[in-house]
Amino acid sequence: MSIKDTSPDLLTFPDGFLQALTSWQIAMGENLMRSYSFPWEMLAVWQRSLGIAQREYMDQWICRFGGGVPLDG
Q: 66, 46, 45, 48: which is closest to 58 by C-alpha?
């Protein structure tokens, strides 16, 4: 008496299933990376604006208390 294997093949997928699955994963991964990169871009822009303001205040301080024109012209 032999036992016949009647279990379904677990590696058999409908046509296009794996492509749809990987396309969905790629789309979700791209959106996740964009959502993580946006706050870092905002922080970089904010730091650049603060750096420009700091340079301007330093130039004004040099002109008033340093007795001359700022070195960077």
A: 66
What digits encode the pLDDT tens for the residues 5-15?
Answer: 665 666 676 77
The domain total for the chain is: 1
The amino acid present at 48, given as its one-letter code, is R
pTM of the predicted structure, to 2 decimals: 0.48
Burial 30-52 (b: 16+ CB within 10 A, else e): eeeeeeeeeeeeeeeeeeeeeee
Q: Is 71 inside any structural domain?
A: yes
Interacting residues of 58 by C-beta distance below 8 A, sequence separation 6+: 70
